[in-house]
Amino acid sequence: MGFFLIGFLVVILSVGNVIEEANGEIPRTILGKIEKMNRKGPYLGIVAPNNYELNPLLGSPSYVPSSSLPFIDFAGRKFRFGKLAGQPVVTVMSGLGMVNAGVTTQLLVSLFRLKGVLHYGIAGNADVNLEIGDVTIPQYWAHSGLWNWQRYGDGIDKELALESGGDYTRKVGYLQFSKYSNGTDNLLNRIWYQPEEIFLVTGTPEERQQVFWIPVDKYYLNLARKLEDTKLPQCVNTTCLPRPPKVTIVDRGMSASVFVDNAAYRTFLNSKFNATAIEMESAAVALISHQQNLPFIVIRALSDLAGGGSDVSNEANIFSSLAAENSVDILVKFVALLPLHESKILNDMCGLRLKESGRSCNTGKNE
């Protein structure tokens, strides 16, 4: 798919030799660099939310930048090439929020030959049974910021606007604002959480499907289970956490372009959806990877109990750096578990599919 896209772009830019550089166009010099690096692929695509999480990875002794072309700058992003634990990687910082994460991930998977997508960083915690510094690896991700905001006075049995045409649904669940009022009438009524519309690269163009929970790749998840006994640092200078952080596979994570610093909403997300990691980018990375038929996994270290209330005061300011380092540590260890040869990965993935469903799969590369 990647080679076809790049070839198509080259043809467009070459017709009549009259197109130079327009807004949004990929300059020929950049296309040449992309083609050069794609010949050295496929890569693991790594998406970091911001510099706070990116810099510890770039400073890791396990990361070796490419000597021939360490990066390509395009569309406001810097795509960095190198090796991590021996694996060829292209790493990019997305920036804050769902839109940035979605745009960046789509650029990554469209421009470069990838064999998988890895996303990592820090997150707020919605599960009081876990501690700051713990590294979570959710099995499913959802976007919690796509709503149908119901009209005041309508009840839960009242059909939503545009529900009859299949645009919206009441299947996922709702948040009733009046449950959090001080006793006066609440004009906000309720919001109904909605699935995303997706258009699969393996499907018919413009034929929409709907998905709320996006599963991470099962092969990646099984590898990640081997990291659950990893020992992680507990202290920042002289301030220490109540116990050493741990790696844990959790059920679900949720993302929205909303910074959640509210204990009531944190509790709701955990009790309603069994969400643990709550943050602002991972579901976008998951949605793009899922639509593009690429295996992905997300590693998020907990930096604070969203909305406060933990035993550690001012926890985010103190332990965010520790959480970021922990997420990088587990990312590196996860990459080290992956076979260096792509054929071995494909065979392992197909073996897992055969074991679970009884169906074989094609191990040929999708170029």
TrEMBL record:
<dbReference type="InterPro" id="IPR000845">
    <property type="entry name" value="Nucleoside_phosphorylase_d"/>
</dbReference>
<keyword id="KW-0732">Signal</keyword>
<dbReference type="InterPro" id="IPR035994">
    <property type="entry name" value="Nucleoside_phosphorylase_sf"/>
</dbReference>
<protein>
    <submittedName>
        <fullName>Bark storage protein A-like</fullName>
    </submittedName>
</protein>
<dbReference type="Pfam" id="PF01048">
    <property type="entry name" value="PNP_UDP_1"/>
</dbReference>
<feature type="domain" description="Nucleoside phosphorylase">
    <location>
        <begin position="44"/>
        <end position="335"/>
    </location>
</feature>
<feature type="signal peptide">
    <location>
        <begin position="1"/>
        <end position="24"/>
    </location>
</feature>
